[in-house]
Design goal:
Helix content is about 15%, strand content about 50%. The protein is mainly beta. The chain has a single domain, classed as Beta Barrel (Porin). About 20% of the residues are buried.
Length: about 240
């Protein structure tokens, strides 16, 4: 094999240096994260984000909600209805789009604006006792399912903690949500139970503050449902890792 001429060495060295520099400066095109505030309510949400262009990215959040959490919703306690604490579990999926004010060639960092869609599917058990106006008593054993689909805008800031670690502050995420709730009796209940349940839920502190309007009159047989729309708000703090 012929030996390379000495005149080729500077050119070869330059090419190798250029390639190594390009590899070293290569951007991290993917980020995975974990939303830390969700732990307060036993909500485990993981996120993924990837660039689309010089300023834009797309992302996806996948969350799993467990029954137990530090945030407790007290049960209903009215003249007619007494129930267990209100708990729920299920999952959510959150596709999102972001526009960073800075170019993201050196990393997805800084201020951003964007939009999102959040799809939530939850289950809940309602257990307790019901006493009607005739002083008749019934056991409450109800299987609840509720779906919430929301969409909106968002603004936030992603802070670099190092070469790969980031802390993402979703400062504000105002939007609009469509709610659908479905209740199925495991034990027979009179029709007036749902009238009293509507009154109890509409006067419930958190739900009343949000302006929810429950009307479990739809459906048939042992299943009743209600739908309504409400303003929505989203915020989060996510610790992410680039690779």
């Amino acid at each position: 094999m012929k030996k390379l001429s000495r005149s080729w060495f500077p050119i070869l060295f330059s090419l190798l240096f250029a390639c190594s520099a390009t590899i070293y400066a290569q951007d991290y095109k993917n980020e995975v994260g974990f939303e830390v505030l969700g732990l307060i309510n036993a909500d485990f949400q993981f996120t993924y984000e990837r660039p689309l262009g010089a300023h834009t990215t797309w992302g996806l959040g996948l969350g799993l909600k467990m029954d137990e959490g530090l945030v407790k919703l007290s049960g209903l306690d009215t003249e007619f209805i007494q129930t267990n604490d209100l708990t729920y579990s299920g999952f959510k999926v959150t596709p999102a789009f972001r526009y960073y004010l800075n170019e993201i060639s050196s990393g997805m960092e800084g201020f951003y604006i964007g939009g999102f869609i959040k799809i939530q599917r939850y289950n809940s058990d309602l257990l307790g006792d019901y006493t009607n106006a005739a002083d008749e008593q019934f056991a409450i054993d109800v299987d609840g399912k509720f779906n919430v689909t929301s969409f909106g805008a968002m603004i936030g800031y992603k802070l670099a903690l190092g070469e790969r670690m980031k802390l993402d502050f979703l400062i504000a995420g105002p939007g609009f949500a469509s709610h659908k709730y479905e209740l199925t009796n495991r034990q027979p209940l009179p029709d007036e139970f749902y009238t009293d349940l509507n009154d109890a839920l509409n006067d419930y502190s958190v739900l009343d503050l949000l302006g929810a309007e429950f009307d479990f009159e739809g459906g048939s047989g042992e299943t009743r449902e209600t739908t309504f729309s409400l303003p929505a708000f989203r915020y989060a703090i996510t610790l992410s890792y680039a690779f």
